[in-house]
């Protein structure tokens, strides 16, 4: 049962899944919204350009039906004359056609933005399979599209029939009117019918847009297994990441152990903590920590220090404070300057004693570790 639930598409699409769908040209699109936008643009264009179009068409009709003696006796002039008429008609309708082209291109972007994808242009021969086409026709999506088409035809056809039936007496009276009066009258009634049909298309678009968004979201839903796999791909396989972290820790440990011979002193707890310090008057503002560790690592630091004759000083509060508040290859905090200075002073005296002899230096006692810096004083850590 758990495996079945993992294979069901119950999870919302991730941002990566949505981005991949956009790259493949899979966007939410509503044909009804596009149809409504183009029809409205065409109606508005005719309304705004109707006067100029009417003048141009009347002139074209006059020029097309007029036959001059020159055209009558020179047939070779008919083709250029027809070309001129066609060019004039194209120029007259060019603004309207340009408006429709712009709206047809930008109307789809109202729903889910714009994207250019070459994947959508690549040939897909599986779509040429007639059996797949028949299966799509009788699929749930195909039946839904058929139902939408029938509903749209019934709604638009019903509204158009209602408008015509309501104004049937007015239409019959058009035959009794003079042409100059009948033509504007007919245009007014056609505009009323157009507005009624556009109202129906607006209703259809308002229903279709949420439906297309829902269908697009549903189609891109993911299974729980896909979500887990995507998380692994985006964040990295946990096993691989764990291996990388382990290798990084090992490399850091090796660098740290290699830096111990360069230290000036190792401060210990004496068994639980070990911190190796280094200081040089050239290029260092304050002493830095080159190695630190607890328990087994602390013991290993002491072993390496002994092998390379690095002084080891037992100072439990200072060792705990250094381990708690210092990072590798970073300077010690100012609060510990005084205590570390006494430790380094002892180390320098010890070096001089080994070289020159004389009185052995005294071990520093009760190093000044400020209150709050020693975690052992707060949580009773082992000394």
Automatic annotation (TrEMBL):
It is found in: Cell membrane. One of its GO terms (cellular component) is plasma membrane. The keyword Metal-binding does not apply. Residues 7-26 have a biased composition (Basic and acidic residues). GO terms for biological process: bacterial-type flagellum assembly; protein secretion. Residues 1-26, 364-383 are annotated as: Disordered. Its main location: membrane. It is a multi-pass membrane protein. The chain crosses the membrane at residues 33-50, 85-111, 146-165, 189-214. Gene3D superfamilies: 6.10.250.2080, secretion proteins EscU. Keywords: Bacterial flagellum biogenesis, Bacterial flagellum protein export, Cell membrane, Cell projection, Cilium, Flagellum, Membrane, Protein transport, Transmembrane, Transmembrane helix, Transport. Belongs to the type III secretion exporter family. Required for formation of the rod structure in the basal body of the flagellar apparatus. Together with FliI and FliH, may constitute the export apparatus of flagellin. PANTHER family: FLAGELLAR BIOSYNTHETIC PROTEIN FLHB (PTHR30531:SF12). NCBIfam families: flhB. This is Flagellar biosynthetic protein FlhB. It comes from Ferriphaselus amnicola. The gene is flhB.
């Amino acid at each position: 049962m758990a495996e079945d639930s993992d294979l069901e598409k119950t999870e919302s699409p991730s941002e990566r899944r949505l981005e991949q769908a956009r790259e493949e040209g899979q966007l939410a699109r509503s044909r009804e919204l596009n149809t409504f936008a183009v029809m409205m643009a065409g109606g508005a264009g005719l309304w705004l350009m109707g006067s100029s179009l009417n003048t141009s068409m009347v002139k074209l009709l006059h020029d097309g039906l007029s036959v001059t003696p020159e055209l009558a006796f020179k047939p070779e002039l008919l083709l250029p004359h027809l070309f001129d008429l066609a060019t004039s008609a194209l120029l007259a309708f060019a603004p309207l056609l340009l408006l429709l082209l712009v709206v047809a291109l930008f109307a789809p972007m109202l729903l889910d933005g714009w994207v250019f994808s070459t994947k959508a242009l690549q040939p897909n021969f599986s779509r040429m399979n007639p059996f797949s086409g028949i299966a799509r026709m009788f699929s749930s999506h195909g039946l839904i599209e058929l139902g939408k088409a029938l509903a749209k035809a019934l709604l638009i056809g019903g509204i158009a029939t209602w408008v015509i039936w309501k104004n049937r007496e007015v239409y019959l009276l058009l035959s009794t009117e003079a042409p100059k009066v009948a033509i504007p009258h007919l245009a007014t009634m056609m505009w009323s019918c157009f507005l009624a049909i556009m109202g129906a298309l607006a209703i259809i678009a308002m229903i279709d847009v949420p439906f297309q968004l829902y269908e697009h979201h549903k189609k891109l839903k993911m299974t729980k297994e896909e979500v887990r796999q995507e998380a692994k791909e985006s964040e990295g396989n946990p096993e691989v990441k764990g291996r990388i972290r382990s290798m990084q820790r090992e490399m850091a440990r090796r660098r740290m152990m290699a830096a111990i011979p360069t230290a000036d002193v190792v401060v210990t707890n004496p068994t639980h903590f070990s911190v190796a310090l280094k200081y040089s008057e050239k290029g260092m503002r304050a002493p830095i920590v080159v190695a630190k560790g607890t328990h087994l690592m602390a013991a290993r630091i002491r072993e390496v220090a002994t092998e390379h004759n690095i002084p080891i000083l037992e100072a439990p509060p200072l060792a705990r404070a250094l381990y708690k508040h210092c990072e590798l290859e970073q300077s010690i905090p100012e609060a510990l300057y005084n205590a570390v200075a006494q430790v380094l002073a002892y180390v320098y005296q010890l070096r001089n004693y080994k070289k020159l002899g004389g009185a052995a230096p005294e071990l520093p006692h009760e190093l000044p570790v400020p209150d709050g810096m020693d975690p052992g004083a707060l949580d009773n850590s082992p000394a």
